[in-house]
Amino acid sequence: GLADRLQGTIQKIRGKGKISEADVKEMMREVRLALLEADVNFKVVKQFVKKVSERAVGQEVMKSLTPGQQVIKVVKEELTELMGGEQSQIAVSKRPPTIIMMVGLQGAGKTTTTGKLANLLRKKHNRKPLLVAADIYRPAAIKQLETVGKQLDLPVFSLGDQVSPVEIAKQAIEKAKEEHHDYVLIDTAGRLHIDENLMGELKDIKELSNPDEIFLVVDAMTGQDAVNVAESFNEALGISGVVLTKLDGDTRGGAALSIRSVTEKPIKFVGMGEKMDALEAFHPERMASRILGMGDVLSLIEKAQANVDEEKAKELEQKMRTMSFTFDDFLEQLGQVKQMGPLDELLKMMPGANKMKGLDKLQVDDKQIVHVEAIIQSMSKKEKTNPEVINASRRKRIAKGSGTSIQEVNRLLKQFEDMKKMMKQMSGMQGKGKKKGMKF
Ligand code: GDP
Ligand code: MG
């Protein structure tokens, strides 16, 4: 995939003390191929490569003591920029309810995302959303949203399939005002292809409900098509943001990179699975890190914050940033991580995870965790804080003490070392986003 290709390229120049224009050229050729292979729009690729090349042969990089690292930094910054730079926000209407229209083709994930978004609004921001079933065409569409509502214990407004979607939206908004809902999420109908009827109906709903946001839901698996769909919807309707679904699947990633620069509308959320909690705010910088195989430490920390002791998670973040992370922290974290959900999911977010072969197929079982815990517990205080003192005889002792093998000890030490290295690189690259409005 894209990550593998780019990482291969990056490995080649990472440690270089000096870098020539030829090096940059060669690297840019690889980057170009990697992006095209990932189904990124060719105009976007051209523009991107041009920008990175210009910066890479400039003073900033050539004069630097670590040009390899500098080029990577430039690539990361430009990837982030390509996806919209700063993280975007969701509207909050001054006169509630805030109205959000969900639009998109059939099967893109509108109904599912409507439920997920409502869930997120309630859980993270303590909002009181009303879901509106305005897809009267697809058989069982109303039922599907009602099922979602029941599952989340959230109210769903519907008038059956004999009333027009515009009328449904109108009455739903009245009801939301009466019952003091602060968000109204309208789940609209889709079609297999874009057509006049669909757009006409959506325009009517838009006119009537005057939405604060129009979120286009697109399926990341469809690659370039997703970008074309986004362009058409934006032209016809004027969308305010995109939700990219099914990013948990085997996508090539091209849509995430092209949509913003083609439509000039930000990706606001990404769907990471079918479950009602599988919706995440889109963070361009973190996505860029993920693509470059630098792991997604921040998402990992956020997950920890959501599920585990907040104080502890803050402390952990601080340690990661200052590089004072030790095996003791690792052990404590492991204990908490066990409560955070599927471990293989979490591991994928670790720095360097992309490079670990077969990680996607990995099933982490409790036995492995027990081994890791045993190994760390067999270390002395000094060894936990300064793992570099762990020489061959210490490794032997630790293996014996923990009832594991020297290979397992070596593997853990190596992983820990890699993780710290990656963190170090990342900590120099953290952006400082401005904070305003409602963030997710
Ligand atoms: P709609 O026609 O646009 O309303 O699409 P639905 O919400 O009915 O979703 C179509 C299918 O895609 C359903 O089977 C969903 O479970 C699935 N789906 C939606 N979002 C995601 C996602 O982020 N990941 C995965 N794997 N499946 C999703
Ligand atoms: Mg639907």
Automatic annotation (TrEMBL):
It is found in: Cytoplasm. InterPro entries: AAA+_ATPase (IPR003593), P-loop_NTPase (IPR027417), Signal_recog_part_SRP54_M_sf (IPR036891), Signal_recog_particl_SRP54_hlx (IPR013822), Signal_recog_particle_SRP54_M (IPR004125), SRP (IPR004780), SRP54 (IPR022941), SRP54_GTPase_dom (IPR000897). GTP binds at residues 104-111, 187-191, 245-248. Its EC number is 3.6.5.4. Its main location: cytoplasm. Residues 266-279 form the SRP54-type proteins GTP-binding domain. GO terms for molecular function: 7S RNA binding; GTP binding; GTPase activity. It catalyses: GTP + H2O = GDP + phosphate + H(+). Keywords: Cytoplasm, GTP-binding, Hydrolase, Nucleotide-binding, Ribonucleoprotein, RNA-binding, Signal recognition particle. GO terms for cellular component: signal recognition particle. GO terms for biological process: SRP-dependent cotranslational protein targeting to membrane. Part of the signal recognition particle protein translocation system, which is composed of SRP and FtsY. Involved in targeting and insertion of nascent membrane proteins into the cytoplasmic membrane. Binds to the hydrophobic signal sequence of the ribosome-nascent chain (RNC) as it emerges from the ribosomes. The SRP-RNC complex is then targeted to the cytoplasmic membrane where it interacts with the SRP receptor FtsY. Interaction with FtsY leads to the transfer of the RNC complex to the Sec translocase for insertion into the membrane, the hydrolysis of GTP by both Ffh and FtsY, and the dissociation of the SRP-FtsY complex into the individual components. Belongs to the GTP-binding SRP family. SRP54 subfamily. Composed of three domains: the N-terminal N domain, which is responsible for interactions with the ribosome, the central G domain, which binds GTP, and the C-terminal M domain, which binds the RNA and the signal sequence of the RNC. This is Signal recognition particle protein. It comes from Rossellomorea marisflavi.
